[in-house]
Amino acid sequence: MDVNExxxxxxxELARLVRSRQVSAxxxxxxxxxxxxxxxxxxxxFSNGPWEEPLAYEDTGPLAGVPFALKDDPGCHxxxxxxxxxxxxxxxxxxxxxxxxxVRRFRAAGLGAxxxxxxxxxxxxxxxxxxxxxxxxxxxxxxxxxxxxxxxxAALVAAGALPVxxxxxxxGSIRFPSSWNGVVGLKPSRGRxxxxxxxxxxxxxxxxxxxxxxxxxxxxxxxxxxxxxPMPGDAVVVRPPQRPWSQEVGAAQGPLRxxxxxxxxxxxxxxxxRRVAEDVAQTLERLGHHVDVAAPALNWERFMDALxxxxxxxxxxxxxxxxxxxxxxxxxxxxxxxxxxxxxxGSAVGVQEVLGFAGAVxxxxxxxxxxxxxxxxxxxxTAQVTAEPIGFMERIGPNVGFAEWLxxxxxxxxxxxxxxxxxxxxxxxxxxxTSATGMPVGCQVxxxxxxxxxxxxxxxxLEEALPWAQRRPVIHAAS
Length: 479
Prior knowledge:
The structure is a single chain. This protein is 37% helix and 15% strand. By secondary structure, the chain is α+β, with helices and mostly antiparallel strands.
């Protein structure tokens, strides 16, 4: 298989070619290695790998032979593979003797992992830059950030090196890099994808969800078909789909009530980003949906007052666990500055502050639950800005505390994404526009709990109406 052919095909098509024996799985993986070799020296998107041979997978799975990568993230691991989590704290790396449930499902589907993608340290930051693996660059403009924390996965998928890659999302870490790199990123409903067997409550109150980043909506649906479903011991089990999610792509969809929100709950929204969301709203109206400007009432400052202590506790707990396993000590020598701030802050959080977050979660979940009684979809920008220059978070300054740092990050980037981690409802980022300088602009479409089918039907409508497949970054394996 020619690398130029491979780099523009999605996972569903690659699997079809393998299944029909028009190409062999080893030929596909050879093409993947060539594609990775063409782009990775520039974008630097792996923390471990790429490997000569993929991890073992079932060759009878629905996506058998499709190249894939796992994120360097504490929530999802493969047996025998070294994970450093973007941190000097883990020394030479941590290995596990077993797969997580999700990795077992990836293998059973036939996905052949070829490496571990770079992420921000312990997946806590919005810029994939660490002392361990260096700088991960955006393939649309290598001077700009690929975002975080799933920056390596987003960059590889955008650059045509891989059709799909694993990611995780505790505040927008799938959707935010998807927007900046021009790919598709779904955060499923809380409980849709099992976090077990090692973790049930990632970053507190199950804010974090595991899934993938893709280039097409049909790949997103196909991966949800293989990744979703409860496992024994799961703390949260949600309503199953009425039919496979793959059947939702291209399925008929009647008129919907769509709420458009372009005013960030905090900070401001860049005019170019706002324009893309408004264009998407006009497209939805042309498709027969009713669109109006609306948003649930939300006290952002009260939300942040509750979220910041919980984020600190989650960071402290995770870092302590990793330090114990690795036999190291959290310090300025082993942690990035922002991560050390989170660790120190979290160590001093009291019980009352944690309980305050529980109350805030309930208030926000109730507000959005009632909102979705009147509206079917919530459409907004994904991030408030297009891709920033590498190291953009350093502008906040070295002397601010963790609360100020997180406040600044979410005001700039996470006003629209973080709320759906709190509510648990599904949200998808679609690459539906570009800026004047040609950078991707993502639009987020969200729905009420367990409504992934609705999101996928509408996402497929938008993909057809506002196609993005013809757009390629300057760093691309098929260039």
